[in-house]
Amino acid sequence: MTYRCFFYDENAYFFEGMKASISSLFRETRNVSFSLTDDYEQLIDRTKSRIEGNQHLWLFCDLDMLPMERFVMLNRMQGCYKHQNKKLVIMLSNHHMPFFLTIYNLFPQAHWLMKNEKMEHIPAFLNGLNQKKANENRFSYSLIDYTRNTLRSGDVHHLISCNEWWLIEEILRGKSLSNIAHQADTDIRKISYVKRKLMKRLNIKNNIALFEKFKWLTPSR
């Protein structure tokens, strides 16, 4: 079997650590290759690449690396995980955790890895990823633990819908509600109602606080 591991990331140290862990998993075979890029179009090209026979492609995507508009960019990647031998791993940071269930809703068949996961838990994640069961999701240990505790506590006020995510991105891009309504060909009162309801639920007082809450949606570079 041949394994290709493609990382959409800019952290070379993280890449080298994951490369060592994956190489250890496949130490009995030499047919493992690795590549690292911060070019989004290269990521899209990999998602569209054909997989044949005993080839396997693992795509590791750092959510923070996605360019603006992230909601649109994620939707461009929707088809990449539908092939049994092609697996997409979305890599998250701590600031994504309160909104994980919303992000998960976009990619219910993807796999999820915290970038600051303890090294002792990485082999179990990779072993699970390598299992032949195509329809099982893999989640890193700390993400499972966080989600379990959140659901148990009932602290789910951070949940936002895909439509709310889209609206937040448009606001963060500096668009007025009237421009957003015109673009979406809908009544501005509906847009305004969704925004007011969201901000009340999240206890956000103004657009500055909204930006601070969702600044992870904007590219850091």
UniProtKB/TrEMBL annotation:
Superkingdom of this protein's organism: Bacteria
SUPFAM superfamilies from the UniProt entry: C-terminal effector domain of the bipartite response regulators
Listed name of the protein: DNA-binding response regulator
Keyword DNA-binding carried by entry: yes
Species per Swiss-Prot/TrEMBL record: Erwinia aphidicola
Keywords: DNA-binding
Gene Ontology MF annotations: DNA binding
